[in-house]
Amino acid sequence: MLSDRQSRRQFLHATAAATLAGRMGVRQARAAELGVETGPFATANETIRSARRVALSILKPSEKELQRGLELHTEALVFESYGFAPRCAIDGDVFAKAIEANAPDSELIDLREEMMMTRNATDEGERREFFEAFQSSGVTCIFQNAGEEGNDPLRLLKRLARFTFTTDTLRKELFKAVSPDDVVAAKQAGRHCLAFTTNGVPLPQQWLSDRDELRMIQIFRDLGVQMMHLTYNRRNPLGDGAGEPNDGGLSDFGHTAIAEMNRLGVIVDVAHSGWRTSLEAAKASSKPMVASHTTCGGLYKHFRGKPDEVVRAICDTGGLIGICCIPRFLGGSGDIAAFLDHIDYAVKTFGADHVAIGTDVAYFSRNEGTERAKLPKRSGSAPAGARWEHLWPKDDFRESPQGIKSLAWTNWPLFTVGMLQRGHSEETIRKILGLNVVRVWKANQPAKAQPAAGG
Predict the structure, then answer these.
(1) How many domains does the structure of the chain reveal?
(2) Which first-to-last residue range defines the signal peptide (predicted)?
(3) CA distance 312 to 349
(4) CATH code of 121's domain
(5) Taking the chain (455 residues) in consecutive chunks of 10 residues, what is each chunk's mean pLDDT?
(6) Over the Cα atoms of the chain, what is R_g?
């Protein structure tokens, strides 16, 4: 793996030969693509290259913008505020045997997840695919969703176990970050790491006392979880989710849970919480908190975005919002331009110290199609309806394949090019790319041991 100095030297040597002239057209878009494909983010992967072509056709960068943007991305520490490491293909032969053995849907869902999250540690081809995508993105660390949606500790443990296995097995190239200093060290060493987050606060749900009910927050923190969603889309004992039609706000128990998370140094995340619940959580938190993957409701109103009042309250804690790459949450053109519009709005309205990128999208292995072709047709019935936690109110937004492609996870280097084009300073861009996430994590670190909640 190249060091930062080697990557920069290779980048400068390669991009010096790239030529862009005149108005952006097919030839210039191709020249721009060559400018990307000869530096440290170069790849022969046509899936990645195709997504880059789409984004470049929208951005239309000049030679200077492209060269400096890619160089800046090489130099910067890139730390995603919420997302997913590249996903692996299933093992079609093993999965086919499970289907032929009449495994229930729940078992097949778990098997598919396990394969997607761990085959990079057990299969050489998937490992190459995984790290090629990581290298193409220029990302050093991801706040990785390592827990299913909900509050059941056993359910939350499943993904946590899978990513722990992966980082333990691949620790020389990909390790578990347990402090912000780990991320800085990974960047300096040219390595990658994952910081763990869960889509819920683990609750035994025995309801003996507040203190007893919150005891597992520390257990999960000790296992490496650094950030937790207060709610997912539905209502839970802490507050209301973003999908609920009525938002009753943060519960009394929710206040106690936030105090315990603050004490232990676990970052409070309201990305999937209702607007009132998010606002009241911000007022309750004594530490910087986040909406790790969201959009600006002041620019485009959507239930998964946050109104200005809520974002301002989050920023008042010293926290941040991570702008996501989900077209229907962005509105407008639903592409990389719309994504940059939200970044522009957030920086102008709330300040550069409070903006990050939490794509909420993933790269999928190119081998998935080949492996899925091995599967026999199933005679059993499909699960009835959507999963319980996926409470998604309907909207009339129509996503376009080109918009989705322009926001591909591996297009991270072009996000930087786009921000430079929009006139953001290099200092601002470095903050958005990762320094803000590092700062918020540092500010959440416990200074010293304190009494537990209710103690």
Answers:
(1) 1
(2) none
(3) 9
(4) 3.20.20.140
(5) 46 37 47 73 95 97 96 98 98 96 94 97 97 97 95 95 98 97 97 97 93 96 98 97 96 98 98 98 98 98 97 98 98 97 98 98 97 86 70 90 97 98 98 98 82 49
(6) 22
